[in-house]
Amino acid sequence: MNPETHMADDRDDVPDNLVEVRGVHFTIGRRVIYESVDLDIARGRITAIMGPSGTGKTTLLRLISGQWRPASGKVYFDGRHVANLSQNELFDQRKRMGMLFQSGALLTDLSVFDNVAFPLREHTKLPERLIRDIVLMKLEAVGLRGARALYPAQLSGGMARRVALARAIALDPEMIMYDEPFAGQDPISMGVLLRLIRRLNDVLGLTSIVVSHDVKETLGIADYVYVISDGTVIDHGTPQQIRDSRSKWVQQFIHAEADGPVPFHYQASEPYANDLLEVNR
Amino acid sequence: MTTLQRGFNTATSWLADMGRSALFLLRILMSLPSLVLKPRLLIEQIYSVGVLSLVIVVVAGIFVGMVLALSGYRLLVGFGATEALGTSVALVVVRELGPVVTGLLFAGRAGSALAAEIGLMKATDQLSGMEMMAVDPIKRIVAPRFLAGVIALPLLTSIFCVMAIGAGGGYFVGVDMLGVDAGSYWSGIQSNVDFGQDIVNIFLKSGVFGAIITWVAVYQGYHAPPTSEGVSRATTNTVVLASLAILGANLMLTAVLFGSN
């Protein structure tokens, strides 16, 4: 990477937004995921990215973290153009962000304790005694100090996500990205996760990105919401503004209506009657 | 799409895959020095791919040695040359069967396990999770497994050869059962198996086979589609491709190492 290009792409000022996405275009094979998407993730806030399944919400997290690169457009993290970073710079940047995967992504051959200790052992030279204290503090924060000897296979889905959350905050990141944190959770686990996300964001002064299609829960904790579909941002605003949106698409989405701008029926090549008659011929 | 186009697409796709796998190997080789700081990762993997493959290698070695001694005896007794039994068993095992059979067993036992393990780690986002924790999966997961294979296979091959030639295999059938003289069995081996020519070449061959098998396995696992079918296909591909690659590489190595004799 040419240093001059690097400086030209990076921002000189300290932006109010920790993440800025500008004109991002992204495709997988021939399928267009994003067409010129712009959005901002404000510091210290919980920003929700909402939209139906398969719309590319998780892709956005991978673009922000630099795991994938956009075909065109720019993603800035703290003023730095993510796609231009070298691998070492990218890894340094990732130490400032945590990610909670939908599956938890816990290392199955390590215990709960060792999973949370993993990033500390990899990136710090702290003595084992201090690592133990930090791990216990993080596990206590998610209510699972007592489960430290268990292995991922022995955890429920909700517990696995809480362990993954403890691991995500092990290095005290500035930002956490939550990928579908509420999917498949029972009401108790859902409530625990909602409170944890809000509390961690406020107490630790984090910036949070919550990717979800669970409308009620997400609108309940988010400070700002982007609604994405068909590769573009359909609407954005505070949760109340989203609830009051005039967009028929947004209204269909937040009220879970079966039919509307997003049709109930997948487009068929033949009319229904013709299809039935075809069989009878 | 015409047959010609399909053939062209298949060829370009195959070439692209070869290029990707070569770059992947380069990344692995560049990551190997980092293991100096974390020898525990390597030792764990040597245990996993090496020690846990011991049983199948020992049992196979014993049976292969027994069969070689049996069939070799029947051949040699017709010429009155049964004192050459030790030499014939030893040379066949050391030069060819040892590295190849151990390599094939290793591909089936350890190669398939490596591909499935890494493929499942990918399918369950464990590799992505590591990347997000700023940990390079190539350094942390792939490189230790690759090096462990390169170290473990020559050791397993040596054990296979000892089992095939020694007291449990060829010696048991030849000397204890068929009555070949123990002194001529061992002295034939001692005078005809050359340390520089045969023993060093065992390690060379099996080291190359170890690299091929683990390279194929980690590449297939790392690039497997994150589905159950994808992992299954990666496991199958590993065994098939690694086995064929071993047989091909064995021909080339034998031609280079023993071709002038």
Secondary structure elements and pairings:
The complex is a heterodimer of chains A (281) and B (261).
Chain A: H1 3-9, E1 17-28, E2 31-42, E3 46-50, H2 57-64, E4 72-77, E5 80-81, H3 87-94, E6 97-100, H4 112-123, H5 128-141, H6 157-168, E7 175-179, H7 187-203, E8 207-212, H8 215-221, E9 224-229, E10 232-237, H9 239-243, H10 248-254, H11 272-280
Parallel strand pairs in A: 3-8, 3-9, 6-7, 7-8
Antiparallel strand pairs in A: 1-2, 1-4, 4-5, 9-10
Helix pairs in contact in A: 4-5, 4-6, 5-6
Chain B: H1 3-31, H2 39-49, H3 54-77, H4 85-123, H5 126-132, H6 137-165, H7 170-177, H8 182-192, H9 195-222, H10 228-258
Helix pairs in contact in B: 1-6, 2-6, 3-4, 3-6, 3-7, 4-6, 4-8, 4-9, 4-10, 6-9, 9-10
Summarize the structure in words.
The complex is a heterodimer of chains A (281) and B (261). Helix content of chain A is 38%, strand content 23%. Chain A is α/β, with parallel strands linked by helices. Chain A folds into two domains: 3-96 and 175-189 and 202-280, Rossmann fold; 107-172, no CATH class. In chain A, the strands form two sheets. A six-stranded mixed β-sheet of chain A has the order 6-7-8-3-9-10, sandwiched between helices. A four-stranded antiparallel β-sheet of chain A has the order 2-1-4-5, with helices on one face. In chain A, strand 7 (175-179), helix 7 (187-203) and strand 8 form a beta-alpha-beta unit. The longest helix of chain A is centred in the C-terminal third of the chain and has 17 residues, at 187-203. Chain B is an all-alpha fold and 261 residues long. Chain B has one domain (39-253). Chain B has ten helices and no strands. Chain B has helices at 3-31, 39-49, 54-77, 85-123, 126-132, 137-165, 170-177, 182-192, 195-222, 228-258. In chain B, helix 1 packs across helix 6 (137-165). Chain B is elongated and about 65 Å long. Chains A and B meet through helix 3, strand 6 and helix 4 of A and helix 5 of B.
